[in-house]
Write a structure and sequence with these properties.
The chain has 227 residues and is of the alpha/beta class. It has one domain: Acetylglutamate kinase-like (Carbamate kinase, 3-Layer(aba) Sandwich), CATH 3.40.1160. It has 8 helices and 9 strands. The strands form 2 sheets. The protein has a 7-stranded mixed sheet with strand order 3-2-1-4-8-9-7, sandwiched between helices. The protein has a two-stranded antiparallel ribbon with strand order 5-6. The longest helix has 23 residues.
Length: 227
């Protein structure tokens, strides 16, 4: 039983590292592992605040900034965050942080930490590739939104929450193009591949850990199912 979680950098390190959240998250994952010895986790960690801050600085200083370079800055931020997750998982995570999902070795421990791979997409795409490689039936995408909305609820008060949506309809919302630092519920490149292989994605609020526990236990939850 392998569960792939795309762990948004916005909840791991919105600006600085969120120590309170990480302590509570670690406690929940440890509880899940101890309750079921067959359970395995793969955490794919985003760049969060460090990625955005460094990308912003790069674009501000460099008049001819390139998306390719901004993307590499974001990738490196994901690797820092993933290394922190690996260290926090201690005995559960004995393998090196995965930076190329196509070359990930079989799970040795109970937890595997992964980071960004290369420019052209976000760590969401890495999560989809790892779910495919390890035969997971879904990706749990944890971010700072509780559901997918018909529009940005911060900008449009009439935006409506969505409980479930097809890949075709979701992709019509987010498009096909990836831009470094782009703020969408799930990366367009990742969405395209998830749609192709028939993978389900659940989008939910990362800091709502009781809700995450319900998702992990296949109980009714607050979130959006894409697929």
């Amino acid at each position: 039983m392998v569960t792939v979680i795309s762990l948004g950098g916005s909840i791991v390190a919105p600006d600085s590292v969120d120590e309170v959240f990480l302590k509570e998250f670690l406690a929940l994952i440890t509880e899940m592992l101890e309750q079921n010895e067959k359970r395995r986790f793969i955490f794919v960690v985003g760049g969060g605040g460090p990625a955005r801050n460094y990308q912003k600085a790069y674009r501000s200083i460099c008049e001819n900034s390139a998306d390719h370079e901004a993307d590499w800055i974001g990738v490196m931020a994901t690797r820092l965050n993933a290394q922190l997750i690996k260290a926090l998982m201690g005995k559960w995570c004995t393998q090196d942080v995965v930076i190329d999902p196509t070359q990930a070795e079989p799970l040795v421990g109970r937890v595997l930490a992964a980071a960004g791979w290369k420019p052209g997409f976000s760590s969401d795409y890495d999560a989809v590739l790892l779910a495919e490689r390890f035969n997971a039936d879904k990706v749990i995408n944890l971010s700072n939104i509780d559901k997918v909305y018909t529009d940005d609820p911060k900008k449009n008060p009439d935006a409506k929450p969505i409980d479930s949506i097809s890949w075709a309809d979701f992709r019509a919302m987010v498009g096909d193009e990836w831009v470094p630092g782009k703020n969408v519920p799930f990366d367009p490149v990742a969405s395209k591949h998830a749609s192709k292989i028939g993978l389900k994605v659940i989008c939910a609020a990362g800091r709502n850990l009781p809700n995450l526990k319900k998702i992990l236990n296949d109980e009714p939850f607050i979130g959006t199912t894409i697929g």
